[in-house]
């Protein structure tokens, strides 16, 4: 697993576990990391390996061992990174972007996934389908789309499904940002674990940082990292024009 620290002189620690296929060189990932560093964070960013034979050994344990040395930190997890982040200890506040806690409508049925997961190989032989702007967000760049991985293995399906089935209790003040147009995530997995008032819905695709509406939500994202779910609940209590 690759790891990099951005803004060594930052005054606050933030652990960012990126999603499957995300890279620091992707323009929109770089935009988000730059936004976090400008807010004063020392960002500890993790790139997940795109194939996995053992969820704990390949994805969870490298990050879990690293955060043990951090006295205080805020936690940000995107997509598959949120599957890792939910199992980490010690964070003050938890923010999840499009958490991949279950397979969404883009994927085959549970029966097919179960059958495929039993094939005894870790060779990436299963196509994931095209990831385009409609799926990720309208700001997704040609470079990002060209460098997205195209294949996963039956072992990947097995290990991620097991991790999703073994989700821990989500922190009581965690905040989730998600789009109802996202075909990659299971909304029931979010709704069963996070109160509705802690979920911020945005208009866009799977990646908030690649969505055209990202500038509208960036301040709320930073506030949620700093203060937790209270700021999201306060916003929900503000009356709309129709209500006032």
Question: Would you mind describing this structure in some detail?
Answer:
- This protein is of the alpha/beta class.
- It has a single domain, classed as Rossmann fold (3-Layer(aba) Sandwich).
- Helices cover 36% and strands 17% of the residues.
- Strands 1-3-2-4-5-8-9 form a 7-stranded mixed β-sheet. Strands 6-7 form a two-stranded antiparallel sheet.
- Strand 8 (175-178), helix 8 and strand 9 (199-201) form a beta-alpha-beta unit.
- The chain is globular.
Query: Cα distance, first to last residue?
Result: 51 Å
CATH topology: Rossmann fold
CATH architecture: 3-Layer(aba) Sandwich
Name the poorly predicted regions: 239-244
State the domain count. Answer: 1
What overall form do the CA principal axes indicate? globular
Largest sheet, if any? 7 strands, mixed
Name of the CATH superfamily:
Alpha/Beta hydrolase fold, catalytic domain
Helix share bin: 25-40%
Portion in beta strands: 15-25%
The radius of gyration computed from the alpha-carbon positions, rounded to a whole number of angstroms, is 17 Å
Secondary-structure element order, N to C: EEHEHEHEHEHHEHEHEHH
Q: Given this structure, which CATH class is correct?
A: Alpha Beta
Number of strands: 9
Structural class: alpha/beta
Mean pLDDT: 94
């Amino acid at each position: 697993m690759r790891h990099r620290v951005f803004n060594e002189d930052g005054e606050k620690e933030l652990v960012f576990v990126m999603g499957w296929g995300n890279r620091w060189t992707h323009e929109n990932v770089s935009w988000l990391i730059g936004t976090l560093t400008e807010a004063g964070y020392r960002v500890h960013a993790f790139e997940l390996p795109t194939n996995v034979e053992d969820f704990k050994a390949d994805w969870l344990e490298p990050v879990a061992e690293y955060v043990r040395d951090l006295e205080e930190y805020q936690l940000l997890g995107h997509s598959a990174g949120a599957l890792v982040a939910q199992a980490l200890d010690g964070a003050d506040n938890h923010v999840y972007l499009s958490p991949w806690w279950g397979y969404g409508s883009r994927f085959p049925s549970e029966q097919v996934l179960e059958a495929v997961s039993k094939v005894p190989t870790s060779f990436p032989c299963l196509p994931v389908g095209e990831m385009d702007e409609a799926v990720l967000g309208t700001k997704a760049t040609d470079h990002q789309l060209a460098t997205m991985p195209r294949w996963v293995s039956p072992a990947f399906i097995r290990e991620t499904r097991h991790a999703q089935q073994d989700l821990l209790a989500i922190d009581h003040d965690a905040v989730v940002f998600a789009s109802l147009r996202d075909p990659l995530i299971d909304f029931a997995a979010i709704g069963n674990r996070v109160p509705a008032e802690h979920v911020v819905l945005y208009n866009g695709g799977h990646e908030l940082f690649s969505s055209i509406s990202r500038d509208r939500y960036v301040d709320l994202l930073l506030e949620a990292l700093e203060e937790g779910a209270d700021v999201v609940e306060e916003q929900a209590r503000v009356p709309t024009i129709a209500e006032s």
